[in-house]
Amino acid sequence: MNETTITAQPGTPFIDIVREFDAPPALVFRAWTDPELVPQWLGASGTTTTLIEYEVVPGGRYSYVHRDRAGEHGFRGVFHTVVAGERIVQTFQYDGRPHDVSLETLIFEDLGGRTRVRTHAVFGSVDSRDAMIESGMEHGVRDSMARLDRLLTR
Amino acid sequence: MNETTITAQPGTPFIDIVREFDAPPALVFRAWTDPELVPQWLGASGTTTTLIEYEVVPGGRYSYVHRDRAGEHGFRGVFHTVVAGERIVQTFQYDGRPHDVSLETLIFEDLGGRTRVRTHAVFGSVDSRDAMIESGMEHGVRDSMARLDRLLTR
Fold it and tell me: Cβ distance B65 to B53 under 8 Å?
C-alpha cells in the first residue's frame, strides 16, 4: 500500500507532499492533467469536483469547484511550467482566502515503471502556510492521492 | 528623494522591496503594466530591455530580455492576479536558473496622490532566495526604481 507523506516544518512557509504510484510517469502525468480524469480523483471522498477551466500549458489557467453536503469551495491558479511527464510549476489559490496564493512545484520521478510525485508548496508567509494546514487540507490530499492510486491501478 | 528598501532576512525564503513614488497609483500601475512604458525603466542603467510578451491579465504571460555589453539574460512569468491600480500576483523566472521560480505579490498603496509599492517575493527555498540575492539583483532593482521615478515625474 502506497502512503502519502505530508511535511510542514514549524516556522517555515513550506508544505511537502510525497506519494508513490504503481504506474509509469506518463500515465500519472496524464491522470493529473487530463480534464476528463482529474474530477475522478481530485478532492476528499464524498466531494464532487467540477472543472471550470483546466488548460495545462504555460500561461494556462485552471479553476474548479469542490461540492459536498456542507457547501462549495472554489480553487484556481495558473501554470508557469509544464514539462510532460516530468514537472509542473503552478500557482494555487483557495477562493475563500484570495490573498494567500501559493506556488507549487510538482516533480514526477521515474522509479522504473512506478512513479514518485513530489509536491513542494511555498506560501507568502508562515502564517499563510499554517492557515492552509489548519483548514484541513491534509484530509483532502490523502483522500485525493488514494483515489488517484485506485484510478491508476484500475 | 525617494529610496528603495530591500529586505532579505537571513534564513527565510523572502525578499521584500518597498518604494514610494510621487505619482498616484493609477499612473504607477500604468507605467508598470503598459508594454510601451516598461522597457523605459525596467533594468539596470546601461541595459536595453526588449519585451517578447507582456499581457497583464490573469493567465497572461510575460517574457523579456535584458541586453548589456556583457551579454543577454531572459526572464519570464505568468500573471495570477491583476487588480488595476491595486495588486498584481505573478511568477518570476530567470532563464539561467529555470528551476528557481518565485512568486511575487505587488501592492500599490494609495498615499493620497503618491504611491507606495510593496513587492513581496517568496522562493522555493532559502538557498534559492540567497542565489537570487547573490546574483546582484539589488543593483538592477535600485536602478529600475530610480528610472521609473524619473519617468513618472517627467
Answer: no
- What is the rounded distance in angstroms from the CA atom of residue B67 to the CA atom of residue B61? 20
pLDDT digit string (tens) for B45-91? Answer: 999 999 999 999 999 999 999 999 989 999 999 999 999 999 999 99
Q: Is the ipTM of this complex over 0.85?
A: yes
- CB < 8 Å from A in window 61-120 of B: 61, 77-81, 89, 91, 93, 98, 101-103, 105, 120
Number of domains in chain B: 1
The whole domain housing B95 covers 4-153
C-beta separation of A105 from A120 below 8 A: yes
Contact A89 B79 (CB under 8 A): no
Question: CB of B18 within 8 Å of any CB in chain A?
Answer: no
B66 to chain A, closest Cα gap in Å: 20
Q: Please, which residues bridge with residue A123 across strands?
A: none
What size, in residues, is chain A?
Answer: 154
**Domain CATH code at residue B84:** 3.30.530.20
Q: Is A128's Cβ below 8 Å from some Cβ in B?
A: no
SS (H, E, C) chain B: CCCEEEECCCCCCEEEEEEEECCCHHHHHHHHHCCCCHHHCCCCCCCEEEEEEECCCCCCEEEEEEEECCEEEEEEEEEEEEECCCEEEEEEEECCCCCCCEEEEEEEEECCCCEEEEEEEECCCHHHHHHHHHCCHHHHHHHHHHHHHHHHCC
| C-alpha grid cell, residue B25 | 497609483
